[in-house]
Specification:
479 residues; alpha/beta; Aldehyde Dehydrogenase, Chain A, domain 1; six-stranded mixed beta sheet; globular; binds nicotinamide-adenine-dinucleotide
Length: 479
């Protein structure tokens, strides 16, 4: 069982202390108290990880795809057996409720399973005709960077797809939430993954990304996090022409039309929005409601938001835990304070909850002046803005008005409106009459400042493969 008092680095198949600076303290967001620490990698540790990944590449790339898949499926089984302690560790360091953490690990297990089950078909040659074939080859070493909001699912989406493709991975997981990566590296090791194929490091994020991307042996950068950091990494990756998969921020609209089932829309929106205290890149943040149902919608949403039970993540009656870190509290104070100072109306919440830990009350804002920062900056917290619209054209313009393009949601029974909105909304994913997050078997990627490249499904594996076109003068079978 991983030791939460000090999480270590995993390099070349063994756990070790970091030789970087002093370990980083782990803080429980529910109490703001330290409960453990995580090792810090030095340049020497990172070189060892790069060498281990390089030495394992040939072996792993040449391991038959069905065997790679079998290792992932075994790792999924081991992870599934450890869901209870893994979820407890994640909840303690991230602040999400135990139920949310278990649900997240279940999705991580599914991700390992789905990729494992499709390993063989996704590595098989594809014929264009009898003389031309495409071979899918592993792209090379992957440097993967995951954030603290959904560490289990996001580690799994990057690692499982890269491993199935035949690529070694160096994962820098978030220092604030190290345990998911530790449980996964352990499960893969126990499942028979050769040493060096997965390496897990923590430390100083800019130093680690700079060091890894400076190595031409790294061929793919996969990053989930904020848009400014994604841009910095993409610039660095350009020097070695490393391929980038960038899953960045979002500022997702929900458009509620007059014919929508309002109670159903309110409960679907609030259930999804306030999961993980609103710290999800896909979470809706701006709600646009047809004017005839606007007041009814707002009243119902406000009533639901005021009744959400905010509390300790390990209390089974808690519906929303604390925010993950003090930076998010500062962001809420700044964005909500700005909107209110310009004249926005706080209909629910609007303030930090006065108790130890990083608790923020579920917040609903209306009458938001157009120049308010919250309408353009990603809020990444438990706050929703709600505004009325009069025409579908106005709703489309407002929904597409930010620089982001990750997710969008609509509520309407009309097939014509559904069809029109599916085309008109600028988003990598659209959900109709419910709110759906990522799934193992479907691709998701952002538009505009939300990034590029895909994670999930077939396209998620293709992100880590190079395609080789083989032309022959006469019919040839490469399968
Ligand atoms: P941040 O941008 O500093 O960090 C986000 C993640 O990127 C962290 O895990 C961090 O360790 C890592 N990171 C930061 N600088 C890095 C670098 N130079 N090289 C490699 N990794 C680096 O911000 P934060 O305060 O942790 O989070 C704030 C913002 O990040 C949020 O407002 C949100 O926009 C965004 N975010 C997005 C997602 C997502 O799922 N898309 C997840 C977490 C955070």
């Amino acid at each position: 069982m991983p030791d939460s008092s000090n999480y270590k680095l995993f390099i070349n198949g063994t756990w070790r202390s970091g030789t970087g600076t002093a370990d980083i303290a782990l803080i429980n967001p529910a109490s703001a108290e330290q409960f453990g620490s995580v090792a810090v990698a030095s340049a020497h540790d990172l070189d060892d990880a790069l060498n281990a990944a390089q030495s394992s590449f040939f072996v792993w790339a040449n391991t038959p795809a069905h065997e790679r898949g079998a290792i992932l499926i075994r790792a999924a089984g081991i992870l599934a057996q450890n869901i209870d302690p893994a979820a407890a560790a994640l909840s303690q360091e991230q602040g999400k409720t135990l139920a949310e953490a278990k649900g997240e690990f279940a999705r991580a297990v599914e991700t390992f399973e789905w990729n494992g089950q499709h390993a063989e078909e996704l590595s098989a040659p594809v014929s264009i005709d009898e003389k031309r074939t495409i071979i899918h080859e592993p792209a090379g070493i992957v440097a993967a960077f995951t954030p603290w909001n959904y560490p289990a699912v996001l580690n799994a989406r990057k690692m499982a797809a890269a491993l199935v493709a035949g690529c070694p991975v160096i994962l820098k997981a978030a220092e604030e939430t190290p345990s998911a990566g530790v449980y996964m590296a352990e499960a893969l090791h126990e499942a028979g993954l050769p040493a060096g194929v997965v390496n897990l490091v923590f430390g100083n994020p800019p130093m680690i990304s700079e060091h890894l991307l400076a190595s031409p042996s790294v061929r793919v950068l996969s990053f989930t996090g904020s848009t400014p950091v994604g841009k910095q990494l993409a610039k660095r990756a350009a020097e070695n022409l490393q391929r980038c998969v960038l899953e960045l921020g979002g500022h997702s609209p929900v458009v509620v039309f007059a014919d929508a089932d309002i109670p159903k829309a309110v409960s679907a929106i609030s259930d999804y929005k306030f999961e993980c205290a609103g710290q999800s890149c896909n979470a809706p943040s701006r709600i646009l409601v047809a004017r005839p149902v606007y007041e009814t919608f707002v009243e119902k949403l406000v009533a639901v938001a005021r009744n959400i039970k905010v509390g300790r993540p390990d209390d089974p009656t808690t519906e929303m835990g604390p925010m993950a870190n003090p930076r998010r509290i500062e962001a809420m104070e700044r964005l909500i304070g700005d909107a209110v100072s310009r004249g926005a109306e706080v209909r629910a919440g609007g303030a930090r909850i006065d108790q130890p830990g990083f608790y923020w009350a579920p917040t609903i804002l209306t009458e938001i002046p157009p120049e308010s920062l919250i309408l353009t900056e990603e809020p990444f917290g438990p706050v929703l803005t709600v505004a009325p619209f009069d025409t579908i054209e106005e709703a489309i313009t407002e929904a597409n008005a930010t620089d982001f393009g990750l997710a969008a949601y609509i509520f309407t029974q009309s097939h014509d409106i559904q069809k029109r909105m599916a085309r008109a909304l600028s988003a990598g994913a659209l959900s109709i009459n419910y709110l759906k997050g990522v799934s193992a078997d479907a691709p998701l990627g952002g538009l505009k400042q939300s990034g590029y490249g895909y994670e999930g499904g077939v396209e998620g594996v293709r992100s880590f493969q190079s395609l080789k076109l083989v032309n022959a003068a006469s019919p040839v079978r490469l399968a």
